[in-house]
């Protein structure tokens, strides 16, 4: 009897280990996964074959991304463990097909980008795999995947507080792992100007001094060489970098450097604007944008355009603005603002770039062919509706739930709360609701989603980590995975291994499962 029990127990254990396929821990969750029983067991040395030379940069990028996990030997045989197949039917989209069998993994796609996303899936399969006898145990599956939205972005504000090259590179690497593809770089604002402009060097030597907490902090900014390095680092990961040069408001740092182009400000926002009445302002800003365009290959330049009314009181009495109003028959400061934004949008057009602006630009009647709107004021849904009804392409980044300077837990002291509202992981994950005004009817105009990290209350990189993660993981799934495939409980299960990975990279994330493990870093 005793032996029979033991035998039954042994058989049960054997069956249960056989029957349990390896768990799928991917974030964002692919849109179609079919699984089979069994597993693919791989040592920490694999072979790779790519069927097209065009894939060489993607392969070397992947090799370096996984080198601490597996070494990859390039071979010239379709029998390789990892077979990358650029299909004859070329496209320029993010979709890929992946099949793992007991022998190996095949990825096919119509573009190197699609192959790269398939490889990010493989990278996650390795990262989150169980190990048995020193081998990775990978699930057998067939994935047919493409994203819900083409724009899956992150905005980082480096004017209020500066993060620096190494932190930006880490963010880009983690974005790539999450199949995020847009890095919107907020490089100028009131506290500091962070991009070297060779024709106006004081923008950084003077305008780069200070930050939101310390107006005397030594100048911090990116040289053009560093900017090129970041753009290349991002491009290697299929991330497009979009510069934002905020105007006509949020210009105080630039105005410290070149006060001759200042349009003044208001009591609470001194020297906040560029001067829209001074013809020389347009020459100056166009020269800046020309340098920006020569650095950034993106077809977009973000012009800002937000919150001008905070600091344009001085326009009421400025002699240049008054003469502009007379000459152009402009009756209100809003019309002056529109005049300025239209002139600068024309400059952007001559640089062969497309304008992006915050949702204030909807009021300025720019061409909808050459401008894209970022809807950020969650409390003004009518701005989203207006953008859509005027046929603008729109990126959704409403403060609630996509601004990560809002706290993510009621107990957190530092960060924004509006009327007691803040941004939980769950809220970010469940965005966008179908009930968003105009959303379902105009889905073709919605380019996608973006998380925005404004850094007034993010004074250091520890706080940057804490506010960004794991909400950015949730945003990546909101941007990639179709509604019918999303499930917050399953996401939370898959998030746990991702958090372990973030830990291994020394990322100080907020831990929603064990909040006491990562207390809120001090801030003001
Ligand atoms: C913004 O956050 N002021 C666009």
Radius of gyration (Å): 25 Å
Bound molecules: acetamide
Main sheet overview = 8 strands, mixed
- CATH class of one domain, please? Alpha Beta
Shape: elongated
End-to-end C-alpha gap: 69 Å
Short description:
It is built from 16 helices and 18 strands. With 524 residues, the protein is an alpha/beta fold.
Task: Give a verbal description of the structure.
This protein is α/β, with parallel strands linked by helices and 524 residues long. It has a domain at 22-145: Chitobiase/beta-hexosaminidase domain 2-like (Chitobiase, domain 2). It has 16 helices and 18 strands. The chain has helices at residues 2-19, 56-66, 112-127, 165-177, 202-205, 224-235, 252-257, 279-295, 319-328, 333-350, 381-389, 399-402, 425-430, 461-468, 471-480, 488-504; strands at 33-42, 45-50, 71-74, 82-86, 96-100, 105-109, 130-132, 135-145, 151-157, 182-186, 240-247, 262-264, 273-274, 300-304, 354-358, 371-375, 393-396, 446-453. Strands 1, 2, 3, 4, 5, 6, 7 and 8 form an eight-stranded mixed β-sheet that branches. Strand 2 (45-50), helix 2 (56-66) and strand 3 (71-74) form a beta-alpha-beta unit. The protein is elongated and about 80 Å long. The protein starts with a helix and ends in a 20-residue tail after the last helix. The structure holds acetamide (ACM). Acetamide binds at residues 306-307, 358, 376, 454.
């Amino acid at each position: 009897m005793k032996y029979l029990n033991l035998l039954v127990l042994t058989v049960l254990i054997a069956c249960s280990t056989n029957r349990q396929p390896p768990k799928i821990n991917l974030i964002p969750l692919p849109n179609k996964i079919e699984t089979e029983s069994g597993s693919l067991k791989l040592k920490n040395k694999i072979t790779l074959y790519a069927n097209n030379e065009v894939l060489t940069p993607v392969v070397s990028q992947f090799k370096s991304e996984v080198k601490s996990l597996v070494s990859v030997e390039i071979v010239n045989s379709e029998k390789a463990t990892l077979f990358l197949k650029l299909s004859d039917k070329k496209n320029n989209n993010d979709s890929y097909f992946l099949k793992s069998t007991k022998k190996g993994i095949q990825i096919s796609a119509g573009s190197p980008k699609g192959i790269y996303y398939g490889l990010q899936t493989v990278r996650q399969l390795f990262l989150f795999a169980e190990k048995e006898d020193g081998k990775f145990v990978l699930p057998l599956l067939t994935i047919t995947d493409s994203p819900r939205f083409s724009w899956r972005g992150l905005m980082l504000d480096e004017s209020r507080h500066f993060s620096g090259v190494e932190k930006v590179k880490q963010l880009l690497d983690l974005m790539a792992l999450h199949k995020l593809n847009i890095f919107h770089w907020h490089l100028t604002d009131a506290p500091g100007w962070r991009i070297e402009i060779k024709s106006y060097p004081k923008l950084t030597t003077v305008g780069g001094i200070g930050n939101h907490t310390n107006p005397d902090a030594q100048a911090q900014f990116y040289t053009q060489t560093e900017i090129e390095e970041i753009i290349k680092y991002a491009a290697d990961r299929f991330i497009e970098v979009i510069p934002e040069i905020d105007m006509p408001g949020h210009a105080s740092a630039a105005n410290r450097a070149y006060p001759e182009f200042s349009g003044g400000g208001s009591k609470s926002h001194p020297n906040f604007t560029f001067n829209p009445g001074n013809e020389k302002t347009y020459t100056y800003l166009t020269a800046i944008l020309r340098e920006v365009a020569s650095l950034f290959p993106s077809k977009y330049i973000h012009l800002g355009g937000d919150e001008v009314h905070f600091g344009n009181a001085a326009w009421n009495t400025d002699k240049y603005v008054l003469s502009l109003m007379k000459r152009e028959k402009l009756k209100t400061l809003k019309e002056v603002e529109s005049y300025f934004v239209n002139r600068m949008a024309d400059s952007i057009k001559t640089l062969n770039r497309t304008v992006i602006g915050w949702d204030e630009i909807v009021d300025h009647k720019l061409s909808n062919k050459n401008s894209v709107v970022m809807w950020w004021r969650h409390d003004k849904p009518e701005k989203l509706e207006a953008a859509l009804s005027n046929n603008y392409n729109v990126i959704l980044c409403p403060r609630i739930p996509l601004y990560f300077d809002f706290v993510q837990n009621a107990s957190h002291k530092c960060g924004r709360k509006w009327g007691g509202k803040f941004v939980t992981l769950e809220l970010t994950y469940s965005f966008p609701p179908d009930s968003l005004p105009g959303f379902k009817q105009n889905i073709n105009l919605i380019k996608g989603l973006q998380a925005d990290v404004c850094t007034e209350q993010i004074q250091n990189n520890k706080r940057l980590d804490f506010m960004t993660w794991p909400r950015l993981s949730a945003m990546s799934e909101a941007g990639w995975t179709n509604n019918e495939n999303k499930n917050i409980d399953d996401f939370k299960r898959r998030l746990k291994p991702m958090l372990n990975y973030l830990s291994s990279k020394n990322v100080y994330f907020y831990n929603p499962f064990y909040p006491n493990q990562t207390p809120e870093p001090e801030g003001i």
